[in-house]
Amino acid sequence: MYRIATLSCTLLLCIPAATHAQESPTNILLILADDLGYGDLSSYGATDLATPVLDSLANAGMRFTQFYANSPVCSPTRAALLSGRYPPMAGVPGVIRTRARDSWGALAPDILLLPAMLRRAGYHTAMVGKWHLGLYAPDRPHDRGFDLFHGFLGDMMDDYYHHRRHGINYMRLNDAVINPKGHATDLFSSWASEYISSRTESSAPWFLYLAYNAPHTPIQPPEDWVERVQAREPGIAEDRARLVALIEQMDHGIGQVLTTLRRSGFEDNTLVIFVSDNGGQLNVGANNGPLRDSKGSLYEGGIRVPAIASWPGKIGANTATNYAGLTMDLYPTLLEAAGVPVTHHIEGISLLPTLQGEAQDWEDRHLFFSRREGNLRYNGKTVEAVRHGAWKLLQNSPFTPLALYNLDQDPQEQHDLSQDHPDMFRRLAAALRRYIQQAGQVPWQRAH
User: Fold this and answer.
1) CB contact at 8 A, 188 and 219
2) FRET partner for 181 with CA separation of 20 to 30 A, picked from 5, 171, 372, 416?
3) Is 9:107 a contact under the CB 8 Å cutoff?
4) Across the strands, what pairs with 271?
5) 371 within 8 A of 298, measured Cβ to Cβ
6) DSSP string for 119-181
7) DSSP string, 6-71
8) What does the alpha-carbon distance between residue 113 and residue 93 come to, in Å, rounded to a whole number?
């Protein structure tokens, strides 16, 4: 049996948000892929890739065509997902790494994460997979609201089979160091299935956050998956074949999880969300569709991601939306679906109206993106972008000027309009400065 950890939190005082009461608490399955490109599902246009499980999930629910990761890299987006805050406001402006000298964030101590909120409403909360938000108390999963953690505490794995980072084992079952055998994708799928099966022994609603490290580097799929791809796609490039195999293996594992959901009798009362933490990495064979650039970039290819939601009887089948949501919007969305009021300040906005087919305006909203990073490309500085309607202002390097694009007229961001539209440039630049000022109010670097 899984052990249950304990947690206590202090609620910030703010104005409650409206909720949609549910007849009975719904279960929540939140699935996060790591570096999955916008064009790397067949339901998003891939022609050399077969993802029948996620395509079926999209057919059963809603597909987002303009969903954005809060950041073009891992940790900031994960912090936004679990906090409902812009990443710097959660204390995570950049990637949290296992080596302190190259780590760029730490969860703010007063941030209320999603599992802590759900636990207050009687949910059992579990996380399986990659954490990437801190190695030590008070930043581990069971410190921040998860009753169960079964997965990888660190950042990236250096090997999908040995589960180490810089020679250190970060695999955990709650506090215990474990040394499981097998490919990480298969392990995470199995552990998630085991957790769902175990919930049949309780009447309490549950929340499972399943965070794969696929298809992040190293691109290390099982060889039989590679052989299947190469047999089906003659002439496919080696790097592309290996990435496709890693994605298809993950899709298969998600299929195992969803089969367990159905067999356990939870399918009709479970909200399932699937999303990627940032865009695909082009230099290892990823496909970001028609979008410009790659993971790590504030161009669309780095931040626009596939996102799918399914909820029988609540979300219409085979629907799509162009609502420009952000990762942090999933926090209030899931809480509203669970009937849990948000009584503290967040920047995220619930997408539940959109999921349930109601009109929801987004074009008056400013959408901000940022990343702080080391190395010579960034030197500890930040890059930022803001989108407002069709207009997007970005600085993709701290050492280059701001550029202005109109995404309706120029979706591939090829023509800088900063000289042609100076008023829009100034308005968005002013909004971006205010965001940077707010971000600077939250400490993110801890003494080591």
Assistant:
1) no
2) 5
3) no
4) 28
5) yes
6) HHTT-EEEEEEE--S-SSTTSSGGGTT-SEEEEE-SS--S-TTT-EETTEE-EEETTEE----
7) -----PPP-PPPP----SSPPEEEEEEESS--TT-SGGGT-SS---HHHHHHHHHSEEEEEEE-SS
8) 16
How confident is the model over 197-233, as pLDDT tens digits? 999 999 999 999 999 999 999 999 999 999 999 999 9
Tokens 């950890």: give the residue: 5
**Which pLDDT belongs to residue 23?**
64
Among 234, 442, 225, 210, which residue's Cα sits nearest to residue 347? 442
Q: Model confidence at 448, in pLDDT bands (50, 70, 90)? A: low
Q: Quick check: pTM over 0.85?
A: yes
How far apart CA 413 and CA 417 sit, in angstroms, is: 10
- 385 neighbors 398 (Cβ within 8 angstroms): no
pLDDT of 4 > 80? The answer is no
pLDDT in tens, 377-428: 999 999 999 999 999 999 999 999 999 999 999 999 999 999 999 999 999 9
Report d(CA 408, CA 413) in Å as an integer: 10
Query: What's the token pair of residue 156?
Result: 């990236």
**Beta-bridge mates of residue 126:** 148, 208
Give the separation between CA 278 and CA 301, rounded to whole angstroms.
9
Contacting residues for 32 by C-beta, under 8 A, at least 6 apart: 78, 81, 129, 209, 210, 211, 212, 274, 275, 276, 277
Structure token digits, residue 105: 């964030």
Distances (CA, A) of 171 to 140, 343, 361, 447: 12, 34, 42, 25
Return the amino acid letter for 197. S
- Identify whether the C-beta of residue 214 lies closer than 8 Å to the C-beta of residue 34: yes
Kindly list the structural domains of the chain, giving each domain's residue range(s) and its CATH number in brackets, ordered by start: 27-355 (3.40.720.10), 366-439 (3.30.1120.10)
* pLDDT recorded at residue 208: 99
* Residues shown for the chain: 448
Cα separation, 279 vs 324, whole angstroms = 15
Residues with a known catalytic role:
74, 132
Respond yes or no on whether the N-terminal peptide bond of residue 215 is cis (omega within 30° of 0): yes
